[in-house]
Amino acid sequence: MAEHIPEDVIAKIFQRLPVKSLIRFTSVSKRWRLIILRDPHFAASHYQIASHNKTLRHSVCFRIYLDSDRFLESQTTSSSFPILKRDLRCPFKKPHSMVLVYCSCRGLTFAVFNGEQKIEWYIWNPSTGLSLKLPDHGGTHEFLIFTGFGYVSATDDYKILIANSSLEEGEHAKIRIFSSQSKSWRRIQDSPYSDLSMTVVGILCNEALHWLRFNDDVIVAFDLANEKFRTMALPVVGEEYGGDYFRHVGESGGCLCVFGQADVTTMHLWVMTEYDKGNSWTKLFKVRVSDQPNEQISFVQPILVTETCTFLEIHTELGSGAKLVRSYHKEEKIEEVHVDRYRREMIRYEESLLWLE
With CB atoms 3.0 to 4.6 Å apart as the test, which of 117, 120, 121, 125 could cross-link to 113 if both were Cys? Predict the structure, then answer.
């Protein structure tokens, strides 16, 4: 019966279905597979409709073991426990190697394959398994200081920024930009931010990347369109919060946000309600990090902020590995989503059909 339905009607129906359902439908027929996985116009319209209707689903990707071929995905939008998990296919992963997934944009992730004798760079869609190998950028033998992945809507251009340095005193970080339009890397003006006092992964908001710089207590921003760095002010807080109060920068509902460490079990969530307006910072919620007063926490990383809760990656000093928890804002309670003794990194991404070639 499906063979007699006009293709434009099928596409309109598919545009309103979740990605996971569409991936299952690819096995129905070659015709459906081509529409879902190989039609860039369909992929773009599907993403636009989901964005407009606020029905984009988010997932968290993480590796099972350090040297494993397996990646696991947890869907964070599910309201039931345990949250469903599934294996992800990483097409460029090889035995005895490591893949680091740094950041995501519109369902695509920026990933690095680190083999015994070579390093390769990829843009990978975990939802579809499709990937694009990037050309070598020439800075492989230097330290990666910070990075970020974003999109410029005016030019339909995905851009990746990497900052490399040999960490010699007085050296500026070398900035390289990959553009999906030119399909190549290029050097731009060096950055004065060349030490390790910044968060590594830039947070995408308002078509700019954002890092927290601890030494100066500012947010460093990079506009993807004009490719210029600038700084933004953090919220003004009382003297009772020391110089290391602000720990993380994030994004929530299209707004930039930062987290302040109130005490060992609680963080404050601040949101910039008007972009680049320093006086619009508002403290919205207390985010519970632990419900165990004596738990020794060595590292906390916010993964995803929603209206009702924040997903956190938490490491303890007891060497028990990492856990993904959901911390509810109003109830100020937490629930464990996943515990993984050997976890390496957790990356949040939107589920989409977008791809590059």
Answer: 120
Torsion angle in degrees (nearest 10) through CA of 259, 256, 72, 325: 30
What is the chain's Cα-based Rg? Answer: 21
Q: Give me the residues of the chain with pLDDT under 70, please.
A: 1-3, 63-86, 140, 195-196, 318-321, 338-345
User: What is residue 249's predicted lDDT score, i.e. its pLDDT?
Assistant: 93
Edge-first strand order for the sheet with 309-316 is 297-305, 309-316, 322-328, 334-340
d(CA 303, CA 4): 44
- Tokens 């509902």 -> residue: 253
Residues 6 or more apart whose CB falls under 8 angstroms from that of 340 comprise 62, 64, 72, 321, 322, 323
Q: Work out the end-to-end distance of the chain between its first and last CA atoms, rounded to an integer number of angstroms.
A: 33
The upper half-sphere exposure of residue 40, i.e. CA atoms within 13 Å in the direction of its Cβ, equals 4
Asked if residue 144 lies in contact with residue 201, where contact means CB atoms within 8 angstroms, the answer is no
CB 199 within 8 A of CB 144: no
Please state, in angstroms and as integers, the Cα–Cα distance from residue 240 to each residue in 86, 236, 262, 278, following that order: 44, 12, 10, 21
Q: What is the per-residue burial (b if ≥16 Cβ within 10 Å, else e) of 282-319?
A: eeebbbbbbeeeeeeeeebbbbbbeeebbbbbbbbeee
- Residue 123: which residues within 8 A CB-CB, separation 6 or more? 108, 109, 110, 111, 131, 132, 134, 158, 160, 180, 356
Q: Which residues pair with 252 in a beta bridge?
A: 255
DSSP for residue 332 = -
Six-digit token string for 77: 């939008």
**β-sheet with 108-114: strand ranges across:** 98-105, 108-114, 119-124, 131-134
What is the rounded CA–CA span in Å between residue 72 and residue 219? Answer: 32
Is-contact 42 7, C-beta < 8 A?
Answer: no
| CA 100 to mean position of chain CA atoms | 12
Written as six digits, the tokens of 204 are: 């995408």
Q: State residue 348's pLDDT score.
A: 85
Q: What is the pLDDT of residue 337?
A: 75
Alpha helices for the chain (secondary structure H) = 7-14, 19-25, 30-38, 40-52
pLDDT of residue 148: 96
